[in-house]
Structure formats: structure tokens, C-alpha cells
Specification:
This protein has one domain (8-23, 31-247): Rossmann fold (3-Layer(aba) Sandwich). It is built from nine helices and seven strands; from the N terminus they run ααααβαβαββαβααββ. It has helices at residues 8-15, 37-43, 47-58, 61-79, 98-103, 115-124, 163-176, 191-201, 214-223; strands at 86-89, 107-112, 131-136, 149-154, 177-186, 227-233, 241-247. It has a seven-stranded mixed β-sheet, with helices on both faces. α5 links the parallel β1 (86-89) and β2. The longest helix has 19 residues, at 61-79.
């Protein structure tokens, strides 16, 4: 069996003074904004994409600061929950959050459609990390029983998914979660969206930029059987991302063991 991809060289190169390449739109792991959900699924099942993924997202100070803000907001979201011991990170990708969650004391299952991405995630895990394992799965059909985990966390995913599939995914997340969902949504109340609308009106861009209103987000979650407990902006004005805390059941059942 071939050894799994090791991201170490990529991650180390990000911090090495001699490195000259910076993340750009030309990176192999940069998904074309016009790609649909089916194309995105196939895109991330490429070993070259998996190897490059961390560099593209963490390969500059600016991107690492953005990642840190996002992580701090996820931690704030978890502070609004209670009774969370077990978490499902889906899709876990290269383990950007799974390892951090484990270091915070949560028991974590990572799940992703891409074995290639999970191979990178697995290579980061230390023996004493509380990562129970990695499970290959399509988010539209999760291989876990009802109420299997206390919380499902999903970041940098839902905005890639068309509305019909997104509703099915949210219902699956609700089904396997004993009580909590922590999700990110891209919204319209930002400078970025305003600039995009101006450029679009002037014919300066034809790049799609799908973003939701607060009412659209709440309606979608309600249709999936999820109530919105809290909405936390990653940053105000300049960020177009919310971390949304959803509650799946007002009266949760007894805490479930990991599947």
C-alpha cells in the first residue's frame, strides 16, 4: 500500500524564509467559482488538490489570520452550547479543525467524501489526540445512527452546495446530531458583496457570488428542522461569513456514544 500524502513539507514550507511562492488563484487546490456541487465533489478527490490544500489556505500571514479569526468564532459558538462531548466534523477535509477540536478535549469523528483529503488529515493526528477516526461518506447520506453525536460542525462547505442538496445535507446533520449544529453561511451584509454588486452592474465581472439574507438562512434551517440559536459574524462589515449555532432538538435525549 502506498503511504498516505504527508502535508508536512507543504506546511513547513509556508513558514520557511526562503520560500518565494505565495498562495494565488493559480493554485491547484483553488476551486473554480463557477463549479457546481457535482464538480466540487470530484475536484477534492484529487491527490494533488489534497496536497496543496493547506498551502493555499494557510500559506500567507493574511490567510493564517483569517483562519485564526474563523477558529476563534467557532470556539465562541461552542461556548453557546452545552453538553457537547462528541463532535462530527463534516466535511473534515485535511483536518484543519478536527485536530484543534481534539486538542480542546472533544472526541472527534472526521468525515469526508475524499479519501485523499482524509489521508492528509490522518497524518496530522498524534496518538493521544481524541480523534476517534475518519469515515468516508457523502454528507447527503451519513452512515451514523440517529442522535449519534452531540454536535455536528461544518465549515467552508455549504456555500459550495446547491439548494436542494443543501437541504438534504442539513436534514442528515440534524438526524445524527443529538442537539447542536455549528455551521458557516456566507451572507450579503458585507463590503465584499456590495463591491461585487457594483462590478456586476457595471459589467466588470461575471463571477457568481451566491450569498444569503438572514431570512433565507433561517428559513432554510427551519425547513431542515433546525432552529437558530445564535448567529456570530466572523468579523463585522468586512467578512461575509457567519458562524451559525443551530439547535436540532429542544429536549435532547441522553448523550449518545460514538458509533
Amino acid at each position: 500500500m502506498d503511504a498516505p500524502p504527508r502535508p508536512c513539507a507543504v506546511i513547513e514550507s509556508v513558514y520557511m524564509p526562503a520560500i518565494t511562492r505565495k498562495p494565488s488563484d493559480a493554485d491547484v487546490s483553488r476551486l473554480d467559482p463557477s463549479a457546481d456541487y457535482r464538480q466540487a465533489k470530484e475536484f477534492y478527490r484529487d491527490e494533488a488538490v489534497a496536497r496543496d490544500y493547506d498551502f493555499h489556505r494557510l500559506g500567507s500571514r493574511k490567510r493564517r489570520r483569517r483562519d485564526a479569526r474563523e477558529w476563534r468564532t467557532i470556539l465562541r459558538a461552542l461556548e453557546h452550547t452545552d453538553g457537547v462531548r462528541t463532535t462530527l466534523d463534516v466535511p473534515c477535509g485535511t483536518g484543519r479543525f478536527a485536530k484543534r477540536l481534539a486538542e480542546r478535549g472533544f472526541r472527534v469523528v472526521g468525515s469526508d467524501l475524499s479519501v485523499e483529503m482524509m489521508d492528509v488529515a490522518r497524518s496530522k493526528i498524534e496518538p493521544d489526540d481524541k480523534v476517534t477516526g475518519f469515515v468516508q461518506a457523502d454528507a447527503e447520506s451519513l452512515p451514523f445512527r440517529d442522535d449519534a453525536l452531540d454536535c455536528v460542525i461544518s465549515v467552508r462547505f455549504l456555500f459550495h452546495v446547491e439548494a436542494g442538496s443543501r437541504l438534504r445535507i442539513l436534514r442528515e446533520m440534524r438526524r445524527v446530531s443529538r442537539r447542536w449544529l455549528v455551521l458557516d453561511y456566507r451572507h450579503r451584509y458585507s463590503v465584499r458583496f456590495l463591491v461585487w454588486r457594483i462590478k456586476r452592474a457595471l459589467g466588470l465581472t461575471d463571477e457568481p457570488l451566491e450569498r444569503v439574507t438572514r431570512a433565507e438562512m433561517e428559513r432554510e434551517l427551519r425547513d431542515a428542522g433546525v432552529s437558530v440559536r445564535e448567529v456570530l459574524p466572523v468579523t463585522r462589515i468586512f467578512s461575509d461569513k457567519w458562524i451559525v449555532i443551530g439547535e436540532t432538538k429542544a429536549e435532547p435525549r441522553a448523550a449518545a456514544d460514538l458509533p
